[in-house]
Specification:
Radius of gyration: 37 Å
Order of helices and strands: HEEHHHHEEEHHHEHEE
CATH topology of one domain: Beta-Lactamase
CATH superfamily of one domain: PAS domain
Structural class: alpha+beta
CATH class of one domain: Alpha Beta
């Protein structure tokens, strides 16, 4: 190896020590055919083969069987040959058939005349990072499944809540055509308004179940009953004292829900 600089002997000694170190980045030296010619001490620790055992073997030996079936090993060599380097982020196989997640690059080394001399593959063990990523992906999938179940529950609840409202509305309508007493008419109006509130609640549940990425902003805002939804908030009997309300508003659909609070 040709070393240039202010102190070539020091640089050569440092590189030799780095090559012999069991820690740090592992690297493999290959010829133009992808046959292993040199194997650093860190590579022995990472992959399990000694330098003597690895020498003369194809680089394909460290690729998983599924990657070899897909010819990923040959593809990586070809990319490095044509583009100068190929990035490597995948599972590799150790000597004991266990797997290690490796990130690194394979670089083509050429002579001054441009002819291909071989390849150098530099690798770093990032199994810990890959394990964390897979754990987060599993948590994401679990949360997505829970969300789907919640949406199904809300959809079913809204549907089941809406089913009995149609016959109730019809029954109240028939009662209204037969009852003429003022007290009965007032009670029927209260029931009709409550049915309307339940219908709106069922619709909101159905909308919430269908909502995925559509933005809806909900907020509490103080208001008076008459200013926001006078029809729905007249359920309070005239014989009772007026009460202030807070309304649950959906800015996307413009709906309101009033809940009575203590008058302040």
């Amino acid at each position: 190896m040709h070393i240039s600089g202010a102190d070539p002997p020091f640089a050569s000694a440092l590189l030799a020590s780095y090559h012999a170190s069991p820690s740090g980045d592992a690297f493999i030296v290959m010829d133009a055919a992808g046959i292993v010619r040199a194997w650093s001490r860190a590579c022995e620790v990472l992959l399990g083969w000694s330098a003597e055992e690895a020498a003369g073997q194809s680089i394909s030996v460290i690729f998983t069987p599924e990657d070899r079936d897909r010819k990923i090993d040959l593809y990586e060599l070809e990319v490095a040959r044509t583009k100068g380097h190929a990035e490597d982020d995948r599972w590799h196989v150790r000597r004991d058939d266990s797997r290690v997640w490796v990130t690194g690059t394979m670089t083509a080394v050429r002579a001054e005349d441009g002819s291909l001399l071989g390849f150098v593959k530099v690798m770093r063990d990032r199994t810990d990072l890959r394990t964390k990523i897979e754990h987060l992906e599993q948590e994401r999938d679990t949360l997505q499944e829970r969300l789907q179940r919640a949406q199904l529950f809300l959809h079913t609840l809204g549907h089941e809540l809406r089913n009995p409202l149609a016959p109730l509305s019809m029954a109240v309508h028939l009662m209204g055509t037969r009852e003429t007493a003022p007290a009965s008419a007032q009670a029927i109006q209260v029931i009709q308004r409550q049915i309307a509130v339940l219908k709106g609640l069922a619709d909101d549940l159905m909308d919430l179940a269908r909502r995925t990425t559509t933005a809806s902003s909900w907020r509490w805002s103080p208001c008076t009953c008459s200013s926001c939804c006078p029809m729905r908030c007249r359920t309070c009997s005239p014989m009772r004292s007026p009460r202030a309300s807070r309304c649950w508003r959906c800015s996307r659909r413009g709906r309101s829900r009033c809940r009575p609070t203590a008058a302040g």
